[in-house]
Structure formats: C-alpha cells, structure tokens
Amino acid sequence: MKLDGFGLFVNDMAAMIRFYRDVLGFDIREAEDASNVYLVKDGTLFLLYGRKDFERMTDRSYEYVRGLNGHSEIALYVDTYEEVDTAFADAVSKGAVPVMDPTTEPWGQRTCYVADPEGNLIEIGSFNRSFEARASAE
C-alpha cells in the first residue's frame, strides 16, 4: 500500500473551504455547500468530508473533538526561516488562530502553529533550505 492522501471531517464546510483557500492558499474550486472537497496540494491528496454526509454514508455516528485538536497536525513547509515568520503573520492576519509563535528549535527547525476554524493544528516550518534539499538530506 502507498499513502494516497489525508482528510479532515468537518462540521462547517463553507468556513473550512474559505480558510484553506483564502488563508492558506489551497486551490479549492468546489462550492462552499459541497459535501466533499478533493484537491491535490504539492502532490498530496487532501480531502474535506462533511461529517453528516460521512455519517450517512457509513450509517454510523462518531464523536468529534471540540476546541484545539491535539490528535494530529497538518505540516506545511517553506524554504526559509523568514518565510515561517511571514506565513505565520499572514495566516493570523487572515483569521487563523495563533497557537505557537515562530520559534527556532534546538534541532534546527523554525516552526510555528496555527489552528483552522475547527481547531485542527497546522504547523508551518523550515530547516532554512529548500524542500528538495531537505528531502535529499534525509
């Protein structure tokens, strides 16, 4: 098996589409009343599923975390430390919830966290080199 992508189960599809499109710059073309959103971001499939639609499809009920969701994160990479600071400030100015200000960690990564409207954590980080250079060093 190969990892194809990941998804989030969302309560307010319109708010989540606006956040990922307008705040983080994801290319989302579906209407705000869509029940499912499928997009590819940097070669990774990213999905937003309407919770109620998924429950109907699977004929089950689920429990959902409220507030900040400490179960997972979405990690976004930028090439430079300066871009971490800029991306954080830009996301917060557009409505992202600040969780952790940009910080350079002892292992050399500059990182920060914001949350989307439903409390999912999003990391923006960099090792101060291009994504391609970082990937080839690992």
Q: What is the H level of CATH, i.e. the homologous superfamily of the largest domain?
A: 2,3-Dihydroxybiphenyl 1,2-Dioxygenase, domain 1
Provide the β-strand percentage band: 35-45%
Q: What summary fits the major beta sheet?
A: 4 strands, mixed
Structural class: alpha/beta
CATH topology of the largest domain: 2,3-Dihydroxybiphenyl 1,2-Dioxygenase, domain 1
Cα-based radius of gyration, to the nearest Å: 16 Å
Structural domains: how many: 2
Q: Spatial order of the strands in the main sheet? A: 4-7-6-5
Structural shape: globular
Whole-Å distance between the termini? 22 Å
The level-1 CATH class of the largest domain: Alpha Beta
Descriptive overview:
Helices cover 28% and strands 36% of the residues. The chain is globular. The mean pLDDT is 91. It is an alpha/beta fold and 138 residues long. It has four helices and seven strands; from the N terminus they run βαββαβαβββα. The chain has two domains: 5-58, Signal recognition particle alu RNA binding heterodimer, srp9/1 (2-Layer Sandwich); 69-137, 2,3-Dihydroxybiphenyl 1,2-Dioxygenase, domain 1.
Give a quick rundown of the structure.
With 138 residues, the protein is an alpha/beta fold.
Keywords:
138 residues, alpha/beta, Signal recognition particle alu RNA binding heterodimer, srp9/1, 2,3-Dihydroxybiphenyl 1,2-Dioxygenase, domain 1, 2 domains, four-stranded mixed β-sheet, three-stranded mixed β-sheet
SSE inventory with pairings:
Blueprint: E1 5-10, H1 13-23, E2 36-41, E3 44-50, H2 51-58, E4 69-77, H3 81-93, E5 97-104, E6 110-115, E7 120-126, H4 131-137
Parallel strand pairs: 1-3, 4-7
Antiparallel strand pairs: 2-3, 5-6, 6-7
